[in-house]
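I'm stuck. Protein, please.
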Amino acid sequence: MKIGIINGPNLNLLGKREPEVYGKETFEEFFNDLQVKFPAIEFIYFQSNIEGELIDKIQEFGFSFDGIILNAGAYTHTSIGIGDAIKAIITPVVEVHISNTFSRESFRHQSYISGNAKGVILGFGLKSYELAIVSFLK
């Protein structure tokens, strides 16, 4: 099984950025733990702060991977292009968020991804990614 994890803007700052919201662990540390916890899965990780690069990666993974876990960060609430990219591919996508976006600013309550995703998991910290992985194991 091959799963792509795609993280959007500012997620490269996990462990440093607002630790009271996002925790103190870096994504690289967490990613290493995932690989140990799920040894039968081949994970490919990509992070970018650039919207077009995220769309390119969704398209690249979208016809040959078994699943994509996408945390588009702030682009979730602004990018019709990312939503359209998910709609255009055949690989199922699970939208994840570390924080509960509905307990935050009202502009974070809108997602251009959710309507085209297999599902949405939010508010469980980095555990949201693990829950997304489990959704692909059925």
Observations:
- The chain has a mean pLDDT of 91.
- The chain has one domain: 2-136.
- The domain at 2-136 is CATH 3.40.50.9100 (Rossmann fold).
